[in-house]
Amino acid sequence: MEPVGVPLPTLRRLPLYLRLFEQKATSGELWLSSEAMARELGFGAIQVRKDLGAVGALGSPKRGFPVGETSLLLGRFLGADDCSETFMVGTGPLARAVLADEGIGRRGFRIVAIFEPDPGAQHPEDRRYQPLDKLPELALRMGTRLAILAVEPRWAGEAAATIARAGIGGVLDLTGTALSFPPGIAVVRESFSAGLSALAGAVRSKRGPED
Amino acid sequence: MEPVGVPLPTLRRLPLYLRLFEQKATSGELWLSSEAMARELGFGAIQVRKDLGAVGALGSPKRGFPVGETSLLLGRFLGADDCSETFMVGTGPLARAVLADEGIGRRGFRIVAIFEPDPGAQHPEDRRYQPLDKLPELALRMGTRLAILAVEPRWAGEAAATIARAGIGGVLDLTGTALSFPPGIAVVRESFSAGLSALAGAVRSKRGPED
DNA sequence: AGCTGTGAACTCTTTCACAGCA
DNA sequence: TGCTGTGAAAGAGTTCACAGCT
User: Where do the DSSP E strands lie in A54-203?
Assistant: First the structure.
């Protein structure tokens, strides 16, 4: 029932369950059992139940979890709410890929401003564009608490410092660099090369990272 | 000493250490202590030592870890070696962002072929382009074991099936969908929206996912 | 002194076993 | 009978405490 204290590994799996519920919703199904989910995702049914239980999802014996209700619950827990407004820092291919990602909008997040630290980069033809040094002021004024860091590696330090100074609460760091953020700010790191490296290590270790 | 049996959480942190060693290498420093690394990354020094120890890195009392040697060791463990050749599936903005990522090449991975399942999409002006149904044959002939899945969500299922059929050993799944792969194939999932969702959950829970 | 390496304690996560409900 | 919910056991991963090298 209480949304506080959800383990991080669980937090990482929840988006997958939500996606699965959404898929079932569009195909008109009303119930989805933990065992079916487990089969499709490749991990244990008990784990699925524990994960869903951690955010208060309630299933029905013999049928499973109600698709509509549960996907609403997950969506409310994972998505928008009070921190849906998000800053984008960066305008390169990576930033463009994020902006093109339809999943972000579906989760209720909105990219409300775009910043670019590199003065040499050309400004995007986007109404949301702002110079980087406006970030702290805007964060304060709009109450924005999330930022996506998608700049070229060599601008990562400067951008991170600006974000930290602005009192942002959480950063999705896509730069693949080893940045330091002050404690108290939540950081989730994702990087293509780090993911590939971990994958290669797992393949070499002859076991999947999620089995 | 033995590269087998490295815990997945460790595997996920190793790329950050490597990045840090590379940064120190370019600034000419010869030694790097676990405590300095811990401070910069925001986690415990003992953990850094255990992680490095897991891949056989050897430090020197009073000085720390030798920058050159350790970064070579980490690079060898995380990077290329026998499975450096990688397939890209997808040609959209996400795929382009991956292709533009300089970190991937630096780790020794090479994107050797690019596939697109959508017949409506225009083929990229890239010599590496191949139709999707050539994937299994090429995988067999080239011995490729890694694939990056970066297609539009609605093509994810078909692409995943082709990859599975081809005997690929590991997939970096960037689609954000809930795909099922046969057991025995390693899967690392990364998704902007899933990362954002996990971040929002962590911020709401008032604690960072890595503290 | 300063920092590494490691077995042991501890904590977090996953899995098991079974009770309960439709 | 089929699937959920949960306390208990097992398994991983993290942190502690301290020995050892330089």
Answer: 65-66, 85-89, 110-116, 129-131, 146-149, 170-173, 186-189
Predicted confidence (pLDDT) per residue in A27-47, tens digit: 999 999 999 999 999 889 999
| Residues 6 or more apart whose Cβ sits within 8 Å of residue B195 | A172, A188, A190
d(CA B126, CA A30): 45
Can you give the distance from the CA of residue A93 to the C1' of nucleotide D6 in angstroms? 48
Q: What is the pLDDT of residues A157-191, one digit of tens each?
A: 999 999 999 999 999 999 999 998 888 888 999 99
Q: Using CB atoms and an 8 Å cut-off, which of residues 40-59 of chain A contact chain B?
A: 40-42
Run of H or E residues at B27? none
Look-up: residue for tokens 């992680």? Answer: B51
- Give the pLDDT confidence of B95-112 residue by residue, as tens digits: 999 999 999 999 999 999
**How many Å apart are CA A110 and CA A196, to the nearest integer?**
28
Number of other CB atoms surrounding residue B29 within 10 Å = 13
3-state secondary structure of B60: strand
Angle between helices B8-26 and A192-204 (to 10 degrees): 120
Distance A47 CA to C14 C1' (A): 7
Round to whole Å and give the CA distance between B82 and A89.
36
| Cβ contact B152:B171 at 8 Å | no
Distances B125 to A211, B115, B118, B189 between C-alpha atoms, Å:
38, 12, 16, 28
What Å distances lie between residue A197 and A141, B19, B106, B126, CA to CA?
40, 12, 11, 25
Interface check B177 vs A, CB under 8 A: yes
| pTM to 2 decimal places | 0.90
Count the neighbouring beta carbons within 10 Å of the beta carbon of residue B119: 7
